[in-house]
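Practice record 12: protein with carboxymethyl coenzyme *A.
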Amino acid sequence: MKLADNKATLSFSNGSPSVEMPVYSGSIGPDVIDIRKLYAQTGMFTFDPGFMSTAACQSAITYIDGDKGELLYRGYPIEQLATQCDFLETCHLLLYGELPDAKGKEDFTKLVTMHTMVNEQMQFFLRGFRRDAHPMAVMTGLVGAMSAFYHDSTDITNPKHREIAAIRLIAKMPTLVAMAYKYSIGQPFIYPRNDLSYAANFMRMMFATPCEEYEPNDVLVRAMDRIFILHADHEQNASTSTVRVCGSSGTNPFAAIAAGVACLWGPAHGGANEACLNMLEDIQRNGGIDKIGDFIKQVKDKNSNVKLMGFGHRVYKNYDPRAKLMQETCKEVLAHLGVQNDPLLKLAVALEKIALEDEYFVSRKLYPNVDFYSGIVQRAIGIPVSLFTAIFALARTVGWIAQLNEMISDNDYKISRPRQLFVGSEKRDVKPLVQR
Ligand code: CMC
């Protein structure tokens, strides 16, 4: 970051002296006002719940222009990465800053592939869960438990440990998600097969059984790989910020990523894909396309607390470029499987059309986000709805770990410790029990 030409001046109406604050520019995007000395200079904090106007860090990984609907990983547009690269190339880019050349790709693929198995003991930990546990509950536990299995990569201050932890996490997440799934349906775990691509290996671990091999299908594998690429990183979203805050205490990488998994679970974030599919199924059960009008009415009613899941985004106020790519994949997968007449897809298309024309959504700049279509694709591939968010977690792991490692390698990093505007009781004395 570099100093901008101008400075910011904060003045007060009560005559307190005004303060000047430096302004910094990044390579693209809005400038930032550096308020780090504000408290020392004025005795005041800034107030920004939800981080509406706060840049909490500097980062060189992912850039979003919400007005243009632009998403760049290390400068490359998501549209080009999704159509010209595979997920492991994207992981290399996010982790190391550059796309690999052919040799680099081969080496990186080998490196990740060598770590796809998990410690055999982990399955006993997994077996402690109820079979009907939500996969995200299981994943939060399994990822956190990795710190108990891989002691030689838990020192966050050691760059080698950080790199090994990153590779282990990226390599083992598909194995763990597939294990969580197999456990929930009572089937034996399927070990990884390292001659397959990252996405094909994941699908095989999900769908093969010891008595029947799974033949990876190119169209479906490509769709899965695209889901991974589109979810790989998204700058300082809630779960990534959680990983950074958690990691800022110096905790080990597996613990920090487990915190990210827990945050992602919420329906306003990664849980939206599951919530969106559940919403479509609900509408379908309650009358289908003919009842969309009633549903939209509920969404617009402030007192109903009903949201159109898969719509809206804190940053994208034009369109979500990931949604466009996901919509393409959705069409390709449904055509390939011959299920274009899927009633949920028809419902989704009708809902989208109404919402895009409705004044409520137009005036609030609410557009479909990536989750609106990813659920339909995953369901068509045969993935159960309850596993959608775990697949998001699998894909986002590279973003989390790249952002965590970026933070730790930054000499300026400090433990995250926000302040507050206290509105509770002033100091008072405890009365003896008989007088209360
Ligand atoms: N349906 C109906 N109304 C909505 C929706 C929605 N999906 N999203 C926002 N609004 C309304 C909201 O009620 C508010 O209205 P008003 O100004 O009258 O009070 C206005 O739009 C602004 O919304 P906000 O809640 O202030 O916006 P936010 O930036 O705090 O929230 C969001 C962003 C993604 C949490 C929200 O749009 C939402 O809950 N969407 C549904 C869940 C969803 O699809 N989440 C996935 C996000 S993309 C994947 C990811 O990155 O995790």
